[in-house]
Amino acid sequence: MKLPGRALALSVWAGLMLACVWVIAQTHFVADLSAFLPKAPTARQQMLVDQLRDGAIARLVIIGIEGGNAAERARLSLALAEELRANPAFSAVQNGAAETQDKDRKYFFDNRYLLSPVVDAEHFSDSGLRQSIGNSIAALSGDAGLILKAILPRDPTGETLRILEQFSGESQPRSQAGAWASSDGKRALILAQIRDSGLNTDAQAAAIEAIRAAFERIPERDAATRLVMSGTSVLSVSSRNTIETEVSRLAVASIILVVCLLLLVYRSFRLLGLGLLPVASGAAAGIAAVSLVFGHVHGLTLGFGTTLIGEAVDYSIYLFVQRAGGNNPDGFWRTIRLGVLTSIAGFAALLWSSFPGLAQLGLYSISGLVAAALVTRYVLPQLMSADMAVRDLTRPARILDSLIDRATGLRWLIYLLIAAAAIVLLRAGDIWNRQLSALSPVSAAEQQLDTELRSDLGGTNLRYMASFTASDEQSALVYAERVGSVLRELSTQQIIGGFNSPAFVLPSSAAQRARQAALPAGPEARARLAGAVAGMPIKAERLDGFIGDLEAARTRPLLGRADVKGSSAEALLDSLLIKREHDYLVLMPLRAPDGAHDEEIDLRRVDAALAAAGLDAVAAIDLLEETTSIFDSYLREALILSGLGCLAILVMLLLALRSLSRALRITLPLAGAVLCVTAVLVASGTQLTILHLIGLLLVVALGTNYALFFDSGAQPETRGDVRQMLVSLLVANLATVASFGVLGFSKVPILAAIGTTVGPGALLALAFSAILARAHDHAHAR
Amino acid sequence: MPDRLLSRTLVVLVLVLLSPLASAGSWGVNDLMQLLAQQKSGRATFTEKKTLSILDRPLESSGELAFTAPDRLEKRTLKPKPETLLLEGDRLTIDQAEKRRISLSLQDHPEVSAFVDSIRATLAGDRAALEKFYTVELSGSADKWQLVLVPSQSRMLAVISRIRIAGAQATVRTIEFEQADGDRSEMTITSVAK
Questions:
Q1: Which superkingdom is the protein from (chain B) (predicted)?
Q2: How far, rounded to the nearest angstrom, does the alpha carbon of residue A421 sit from its chain's CA centroid?
C-alpha cells in the first residue's frame, strides 16, 4: 500500500526538482539598479529611469592617476586616454589634451557661422554689421584686446565668442603639464564615457577592467603611480561585487551554523541530509518561480536565499523532533499548514509592490516556503525509516519546560517591555530613512573618493535636467532649439543660471540652412561691409578673410555628427543627445542662477514657461527629488502592503481558529516582539529602511509558526509531547537566529538590516509566545 | 671681559647697519624693489593707448587702478566700456557689463599670468615673482628709472616681446607692452593718493 504512494511522491518531487534546475540553468541573474527602479513608472519617473540608464551620470567613469610627479602623471594620462579613445567600449574620453583643445578651437572657429545662435538676416544687414563690428572694436580696448585682435580680421562680428559664451559657467578642471589635474595638483584626471547603458553592469564592469588593464600596460610606468576610479558605473560594479561575495559568504556561513546545530541535536547525518532537503527544494523552487515570472533573478533576491534556510529548515525540525506530533499527527499537520498559510498571506502582499526587488522577494519566499512545506509533508515521511529517530531529548526538554514555567512569573515584565517600546516609538517621530543611499552597499571610503573626484572635476551639478525623447536626430535637435529659446529667456530672467543643449554644438539642419540663407553672398557682403565700417578705425580691406569665410560658410555642406569627432563637442553630444534602440533621448542640464539658495531652481516656473510655449513633450525634473520620491513611495507602499499582510494573517487565523480571543492570543506576542525590536533599533539610532520593514514582516511570518504551536487547540495531549514540541521550537528558533544573525554582520546595509531585525525578533517572538501562552494555560488550569 | 664682548657686538651691529650704504653708489634692482615694497597700497587713474596694426588709429581707454600689498590688484576700466579686472592671489576675475563673470586660476593659465603678474609683481616689489617669467634689466636712477622685462619662456615670447615699466622713486608712471607682432599698448598712471 505504501510503496506506490512513496514512488509517486518521490517521482513527482524529483521531476519538479529537475524542472526547477532546468529553469535555473537558463536563468539570467542580474545585479544592477533595476531592482530599485519602479515597475510601472510615471512619466517623470521614466525620465529618471532614462537618466540612470542612458544619462551621462550613469555612464561616466572619473579616472584619477595618483603618485609619481606631475609630468609622469600627465604622460600616463595622455597615454591612457589615447588607448581608451581607440576602444569602442568608450564613447568619449576627455583629459584636456592639447590635441582636443586644438580640435575644439578649430571646430567652433571654422563653423562659427553655422553654430552662432545670433546669425540671421538682421545680423548681417548694414546696421547689424555696424553694431557688431563696433562692439568687437570696442572690446579690443579692454583687457582681452590683445588676444581678441587675433581673430578680429576673420571674425569681426564676434561669433566665436558668442558660441563660447553659451558654455560659460561650466568650469573645467585645471591643467597641469598638458593634462587635466585635480585642484590640489596631486592627481591627473580623465573623464571616460562608457558607450553601453548604465544598467548593463556586465558591460560597465568590462569597461572598467579595460581601463585598469590599459593603465597597467603603459610602458615604463613609474611604479609609484596608481589608478583610482569612481563614478556611478564604478560604484554599481563594486556594489555588485560586494553583494555577490557577501551573499555567497553569508550563505556558506549560515549553512555551516545550521548544519552544526542540527548535527548537535540529531547526531545523525541521515537526518541532517533529510532536514536540508526541504531547504534545497525550497530555494530551487523559489529561484525557478522568480525566473519564470520576472524573466530574471536579481542578486539581492538570492541574498535572501539565506533567509529561507532559517525558515524552511523549521518544518523538518518540527517533523523530526515532534515525531510528527506523536499521538496527534492530524493536529500537527494542521498547525504546520496554518503556519505556512499565514506566512504566505504575509508575503503575498509584497507581490503587489511596484518595487521590483520586493515583488521578487515576495514570490521567492512564497514559492520557497510552499515547496519546503510540501517536501516536508509528502517526501520526508517517505524517506524516513521507522527506526530513524532523533536521539532522546527528554532531559533538555524537561529543563526547558521548567524554565518556561518559572518565566511565566515574568510576564508582567513582557507587558512592561511592550509598553516601553510603544512609548519609545510614539515619541520617536519619523523613524524612516527615505534616502535610496541608505540601501547602497557603497563603502564610506568609496563614497569619499567619489566626492573627491567629482569636486576635482569642478562639480558640474547635474541635479536639474530638462529632458525629452524624439523619433530621430533632426527632430530631437529642432525640439532642443525650441526648448533652448525658452530656456534662454528664463536665463535672462535669472530663473535659471544657464543650460546646455546638444544644439549648441550641432544645430539642426533646418537651423544651419536658415543661417546659411542669412549670410550675404560675396559682392553683397563686400558692399554691406564697406558701408558698415565707414567712419570706423578699420578699413574694409583688412577684413577680406571675413568675406572669404562668409562665402565658404554659405555654400559648405551642413555639419553632422562626423564633424565633431575628437573634440569635446563629441563628448557633449554623446551625453546630451543619446541614440537609443527606438528613439533619441535629449538631456538639457539646467544650472541654478548665481547666488540661488542651496543652488536650487524653481522648477514650477521652468515648467510653466515651457508649457506656455506649447512644449509639452519636455519635462524639467529635479533628479534628487525624483529619486527621493520614488523611494518614499516604495516605503509608503511597503508600509501599506505589510499592514495588509498582517491583516491577512489575522483574517487567516480567525478563519482557521474561529475564535477571536485565540487569534489575538497568537498575535499579541508577535506584535510585542515587533514593537520591541523596532524600539531597540530606533533607540540605538538606526533609521529604519524598507528592508527593516521586510525583516519585521519575516518576524511575524516566522513567529506565527511558533505561536500556533502554543495555541490551546494545537497543544499535544501528553506532557511528553508538549516538551518535545518545546525542544523543536527552540531548535527551529536557534536555526533561524543563527542564519539571520549572520546576515546582521554583513557590510551590505540591506542584508544587515534584515539580520538585525529578524534575529532578535524571532528570539523575542518565541520567548513571548511561550511565556504568554503558558501563563494563559496556568490561568486556565486554576 | 663683559666690556669686551659688548664692544664686539657693537662693531658687528654697526657693520650690519652700514652695509646698505656701502652699495649706495650703484642703483640696483634690489633697491628699486625695496622701495616699491614699502608702498603698501595705492590708488591711481590710468589711461591706456593701444596701437594695433589692424586699426587705423589707436584705441584709448581709461579708468582706475588700485593696489593693496601683497597681491591684490584691481583695474577698473570706465571708458569706453566698463570692465573690471580683479587679481587676487591666484584668482583672476573679469566682470564685463551684461556678461557672465569670468574667473580663472593663474596657475592654469601661465600666459595670462605673465601679463598681469608683470604689473602686480612690480608694484609689490616682488623680484622673485618677476624673475619667474622675465629677465629683468634696470636702468636710470632712483628718480627716473626704467625696468625692462623680457619673457624668458618661448611660449610667452611668441605673444609679448618686451614690457617697459618706468617711474620715479616708488611711483610707477608708465607701463608699456610690446607685442611680438609690433602692436603696442601704453599705460600712463597718475597717482591719486598715497
A1: Bacteria
A2: 33
Q: Cβ separation of A142 and B83 shorter than 8 Å?
A: yes
Chain B: residues touching A (Cβ < 8 Å): 48, 50, 52, 54-57, 59-61, 75, 77, 80-81, 83, 85, 94, 96, 99-100, 102, 105, 107-108, 115, 159, 177, 179, 183, 185
Q: What CATH number is attached to the domain comprising B129? A: 2.50.20.10
Q: What is the mean pLDDT of each run of 10 residues along chain A (782 residues)?
A: 69 91 86 68 76 77 90 92 91 84 87 90 87 86 75 87 77 78 87 83 89 92 90 83 80 86 85 88 91 85 68 83 67 83 84 83 89 89 71 78 80 87 84 70 79 73 84 93 92 87 92 91 87 85 88 91 85 85 88 78 89 88 81 83 87 86 86 92 85 85 83 67 82 86 82 87 90 68 46
* Structure confidence at residue B194 as a pLDDT band (50, 70, 90): very low
Please give the backbone phi and psi of residue B46, each rounded to the nearest 5 degrees, phi first: -140, 155
B105, B108, B117, B187: which to substitute to probe chain A, counting the most A Cβ within 10 Å?
B108
β-pair type (A60-66, A187-194): antiparallel
The CATH number for A248's domain is: 1.20.1640.10
| Nearest Cα residue in chain B from A179 | B108
State the pLDDT at residue B10: 47
CB spacing of A538 vs B94 below 8 angstroms = no
Cβ contacts of B108 on chain A, cutoff 8 Å:
174-175
- Asked whether residue B12 is domain-assigned, the answer is no
Predicted ipTM > 0.95? no
Nearest CA in chain A to B106: A174
Residue A297 lies in a domain: yes
Range of the domain at A377: 235-438+626-781
**Residue A273 counted as domain residue:** yes
Residues β-bridged to residue B63: B46, B77
CB contact under 8 A, A141 and B81: yes
Q: How far is A89 from chain B (nearest CA, A)?
A: 31
In-domain check, residue B18: no
Q: Which pLDDT belongs to residue A371?
A: 92
Å from B54 to nearest chain A CA? 7
pLDDT in tens, B87-125: 888 888 888 776 667 777 777 676 677 777 888 888 888
Q: Cell numbers 608702498 label which residue? A: B39
Q: Which phi and psi (to 5°) does residue A155 adopt?
A: -130, 65
List, in sequence order, the alpha helices (H) in A90-155.
98-110, 112-115, 126-140, 145-148
- Chain A interface test: which of B53, B54, B90, B99 (most A C-beta within 10 Å): B54
DSSP assignment of B143-165, as one string?
TEEEEEEEESSHHHHTTEEEEEE
Q: Is residue B13 part of a domain?
A: no
Q: CA-nearest residue of chain B to A166? A: B100
At residue A404's C-alpha, the angle toward residues A400 and A408, to 5°, is 170
Residue B61 has its nearest CB partner, among A141, A153, A165, at A141
A720 is a domain residue? yes
The count of domains in chain B is 1
Residue A389 lies in a domain: yes
Query: Is B84 a member of any domain?
Result: yes
Determine phi and psi for A263, rounding to 5 degrees: -60, -40
